[in-house]
Design brief:
This protein is of the alpha+beta class. It contains 4 helices and 6 strands. The strands form 2 sheets. It has a 3-stranded antiparallel β-sheet, with no helix packed on it. The protein has a 3-stranded antiparallel β-sheet with strand order 4-6-5. The protein binds zinc ion.
């Protein structure tokens, strides 16, 4: 075994502390260690790798908190990309308590980010809201709202019909 190898080959990406090759995580920051002294990482090979490089480790800690909502999957993914540009990783979750049938792609989504990235995420979202609204986009959004509303009304009617049928069967 090469016991006399240079002691600190790994470093914590968060606090910068050096570690030996035997370590895997920084005990203070709980961050996976990276090789020290890597000044220029290799260029991104593909989209997934590119995404991983954009994420800032200091924004990837803590419990997931909801910072925004998308009216549908596409809008939620748009917001995710926006956050990624700021280095904030995020994930989507179908909004709770919104009883839309699963087949309805227009169902709203929650956008969740780690607690440490929430302030940066909110900043980015606020900036994005200040951008001028595109009229075409506005019309499309209106149509989406009608779709969602239609789904809710239809779902309610269906539920009422089922309840009525069951009552008939009992009586
Ligand atoms: Zn550390």
């Amino acid at each position: 075994m090469s016991a006399e190898a240079p002691s600190e080959v790994l470093a914590c990406p968060d606090c910068g502390r050096g570690f030996t090759a035997e370590e895997r995580f920084c005990p203070d920051c709980r961050m996976p260690l990276v090789f020290a002294g890597v000044e220029s990482p290799e260029p991104a090979r593909d989209a997934a790798h590119e995404h991983a490089r954009k994420i800032r480790p200091e924004f990837a800690r803590g419990d997931l908190v909801r910072v925004a909502g998308g009216r549908n999957q596409a809008e939620a993914e748009l917001i995710q990309n926006l956050l990624l540009e700021e280095g904030v990783p995020s994930m989507l979750r179908r909004s709770a308590g919104f009883d839309v049938p699963d087949f309805l792609a227009a169902g709203p989504r929650d956008i969740l980010v780690p607690a440490s990235g929430a302030p940066a995420a909110l900043d980015a979202l606020q900036e994005a809201d200040m951008a001028p609204t595109d009229e075409e986009e506005y019309r499309v959004s209106g149509r989406h709202a009608m779709l969602v509303l239609g789904g809710i009304v239809l779902g309610g009617l269906l539920a009422a019909l089922i309840a009525w049928t069951m009552l008939q069967a009992v009586g």
